[in-house]
Amino acid sequence: MVNELAGRWWNGTWGRLTRRDGWLAREVRWHVVAKAGDSETGKVLRWEFDNEGEARQMVRRLVQADGGQWREQAGDAATQSPR
C-alpha cells in the first residue's frame, strides 16, 4: 500500500476551537482528511476519491467554506497526516 502525502493546509489559527487542518494523501485511492479543533476536542472527517482531481476539488471546497486565510504547508509541517 502506497502512502503519499500530496498536500497539507491549515487556516492559520492556533486556537483549540478554531484551528482547521486538511490533508490530501494517496494510498490505493486518494484521501482527504479534515480536522476541526485540537487533538483532544477536535472532530475528524474523511473522504475517499478515485482520482486526484476530485480529491483536490474537495480540498478547495473545504478551504473556501471556512472563509479563513488558509495556506498550504510544506516541508516537515506537511509530513504527517492523522489516522
Structural write-up:
The protein has one helix at residues 52-66; strands at residues 4-10, 20-26, 30-36, 43-49, 71-73. The mean pLDDT is 82. Helices cover 18% and strands 37% of the residues. The radius of gyration is 12 Å and the shape is globular. The protein starts with a strand and ends in a 10-residue tail after the last strand. It has 1 helix and 5 strands, in the order ββββαβ. It has one domain. The chain has a 5-stranded antiparallel sheet with strand order 4-3-2-1-5, covered by helices on one side. The protein is an alpha+beta fold. A hairpin with a 6-residue loop joins strand 3 (30-36) and strand 4.
Q: Could you list some keywords that capture this structure?
A:
83 residues; alpha+beta; five-stranded antiparallel beta sheet; 1 helix; 5 strands; globular
Structural topology:
Layout: E1 4-10, E2 20-26, E3 30-36, E4 43-49, H1 52-66, E5 71-73
Antiparallel strand pairs: 1-2, 1-5, 2-3, 3-4
Described by strand count, sense and barrel closure, the largest sheet is: 5 strands, antiparallel
What is the number of E strands? Answer: 5
Structural shape: globular
Provide the helix percentage.
10-25%
Summarize it:
The protein contains one helix and five strands.
